[in-house]
What does this fold into?
Amino acid sequence: MTAGPTQSQAPRAAAPRPKLPREVALRKAERKKAARRRRTGRIRRGVAVLSVGAFIGPFGVIFTQLALGRDPALSTTHKAAAKPSVASASSPSVTRSPTVQTTSPTPVTTQQS
It folds into this structure.
C-alpha cells in the first residue's frame, strides 16, 4: 500500500522538439502570418457588410415611406376621439357641430414706425 507512483506509472517528460532549420521556421512563420491576415480581413469584411446592411435596411424603409408620401410628420389626420356635441334642451333632435372661426392672417409690414 504505497501512496506514490511506481516505476511503471511515473509521468514522462515531453520529448524535446528538434530545432528546425532557419528557412523552414521562416516559411512556417510566414504561413501563420498569412493565415492571420486572411482571418483578420475576413472579419473586417464581415463587420463592414453588417454595418452597411444595418444602415441601408432602416434607411431604405424610411426613404420608401417618404417617397410614397406617407410622412408621419406631415400627416393632417388626428387620432383624437371625437366627442358628440351635447344637444340643447330646446331642440333635442338637432346636434350641433362645433364651429371653427377662421381669421385672416395679419399683413406683414416692412416699414418701421
The radius of gyration is 41 Å.
